[in-house]
Design goal:
The protein has three domains: about 50 residues, Helix Hairpins, CATH 1.10.287; about 230 residues, Bira Bifunctional Protein, Domain 2 (BirA Bifunctional Protein, domain 2, 2-Layer Sandwich), CATH 3.30.930.10; about 90 residues, Anticodon-binding domain (Rossmann fold), CATH 3.40.50. About 45% of the residues lie in helices and about 15% in strands. The chain contains 16 helices and twelve strands. A five-stranded mixed sheet has the order 1-4-5-7-6, covered by helices on one side. A five-stranded mixed sheet has the order 9-8-10-11-12, with helices on both faces. Helix 2 crosses helix 11 and helix 7 packs antiparallel against helix 8. The N and C termini lie far apart (about 125 Å). About 25% of the residues are buried. Its EC number is 6.1.1.21. GO terms for molecular function: ATP binding; histidine-tRNA ligase activity; RNA binding.
């Protein structure tokens, strides 16, 4: 009996301890709740939390293009496309990213500059490095063996950017390529011609086109009497001319490499030549060479595509043959000979942007829209009439706009036209509406003339063409 009583007392004691612990925990919870409520009250007094501050910028190696820059860019692209079409090229488009396996191994050391993307549904992708490999993949995939194509699109390279010299990580390439089995050098010559036409049309200053190929140098060595087994060793010496004078190069060729002095001197006559039309005439007349791949009446008076304009950007174009690339994608290894030229529009744009900064007074360079006329009102409450005239001219194919204000001041409307370089202001007033005419004002000369409303679109087109 005593043992039972002792057990009960022990249980009561344990229950009492549990109750005391629960009361203590409850008190702690209430205390914590009170502290949380105080914090919330203080926070409400401070108002909304200030947003986290960070620096707004474009990713490294990229930039924004405002309306003025885009206006210049679009004009450049229009001229480039005009040349491509003049030579019979048709355009294609390819994805901005490719399967990584398509790009891997096609660029040698430059493969490390490819941007890789995260796994997307089991496909390992990379951003295109240029437009040539996607074009070769397109040819092989679609079994195309003959095409003359152009493509203008963005490419991506994880390179060290030099923004002032037009070297970016995201940039446009403008490619012209000829694919197919043709007689030697004829497509190559047209690619050079395309580059010359484009650079000549863009008003970027003087430039040189450097044509180079190892076989050209081999032909020079052969013509000068260098034995074929010595072509490579002679070439390694001539390559030093960029950094060493001819005297040192000659001493190496004759002294160290034991080449015939007379043959080396003949080589020296040619490798030291620089010039344009005069040099071309000399080479054409030289019986040692067969210079037949110039278009009739043309000499390469644009002989590195670097310019001497307001900013030096180095090479602005490059190209060459890639006869074995298509076969790398073809299951049977079928080869499609290809040659092409790529224009670096970003570097050209750097030149033109520098010119633009020096010619701010030239409003023709600064226009960012193609608006041909501005519908203005001389009095209040004519918004419906302005909108009606806009609709008539839009239907007639005229590029017009008007103020978004109900009752804009006439002076402000005319100033808008002058600032934007809009050719014509079309002024409406109650008198003009009643007479069925519109006052056509030439913004540059400020001359005005009433034009019948029915003839307005035709009159604007006629004056724009004159």
């Amino acid at each position: 009996m005593a043992d039972k009583k002792s057990d009960i007392q022990e249980k009561v004691k344990r229950q009492g301890e549990i109750v005391r612990k629960l009361k203590a925990e409850k008190a702690d919870i209430e205390k914590i709740t009170q502290e949380v409520n105080k914090l919330l009250e203080l926070k409400s007094q401070l108002g909304d939390e200030a947003p986290q501050k960070f620096t707004l910028k474009t990713p490294k190696g990229t930039r924004d293009y405002g309306p003025q820059q885009m206006a210049v860019r679009n004009r450049v692209l229009e001229k480039i496309i005009t040349v491509f079409k003049r030579h019979g090229a048709e355009t294609i488009d390819t994805p901005v990213f490719e399967l990584k396996e398509v790009l891997t191994g096609k660029y040698g050391e430059d493969s490390k500059l490819i941007y890789d993307l995260a796994d997307q549904g089991g496909e390992i992708l990379s951003l295109r490095y240029d437009l040539t490999v996607p074009f070769a993949r397109y040819l092989a995939m679609n079994k195309i063996s003959n095409v003359k194509r152009y493509q203008i699109a963005k490419v991506y390279r994880r390179d060290n950017p030099a923004m002032t010299k037009g070297r970016y990580r995201e940039f446009y390439q403008c490619d012209f390529d000829i694919a197919g089995q043709y007689d030697p050098m004829i497509p190559d010559a047209e690619c050079v011609r395309v580059a010359v036409e484009i650079l000549s049309s863009l008003d970027i200053g003087n430039f040189m086109v450097k044509v180079n190929h190892r076989r050209l140098l081999d032909g020079l060595f052969e013509a000068c009497g260098i034995p074929s087994q010595s072509f490579r060793t002679a070439c390694s010496s001539v390559d030093k001319l960029d950094k060493s004078p001819w005297e040192e190069v000659r001493a190496e060729m004759v002294g160290e490499k034991q080449l015939n002095p007379d043959a080396v001197d003949k080589v020296g006559e040619y490798v030291r030549l620089h010039g344009d039309a005069e040099l071309a005439d000399k080479l054409i007349a030289d019986p040692k060479f067969d210079v037949t791949y110039l278009f009739p009446g043309e000499t390469p008076n644009h002989v590195e595509n670097s310019t001497d304009g307001p900013v030096s950007v180095g090479s602005v174009a490059g190209g060459g043959r890639y006869d074995n690339l298509v076969g790398m994608f073809d299951s049977k290894g079928k080869q499609v000979p290809c040659v092409g030229i790529s224009i670096g529009v970003e570097r050209i744009f750097s030149i033109l942007e520098a010119k633009l900064a020096n010619e701010k007074a030239n409003s023709a360079l600064l226009r960012t829209t193609e608006i041909e006329a501005y519908v203005a009102s001389a009095q209040k409450n004519l918004l419906p009439e302005r909108m009606k005239l806009c609709r008539e001219l839009w239907d007639a194919g005229v590029k017009v706009e008007t103020s978004y204000k109900q009752n804009p001041k006439l002076l402000a409307q005319l100033q808008y036209c002058e600032e934007r370089g809009i050719p014509f202001a079309l002024v409406l007033g109650e008198a003009e509406i009643a007479q069925g005419v519109v006052k056509l004002r030439e913004v540059s000369s400020r001359k005005e003339e009433d034009i019948p409303r029915a003839n307005l679109a035709e009159e604007i087109r006629k004056r724009l063409q004159s």
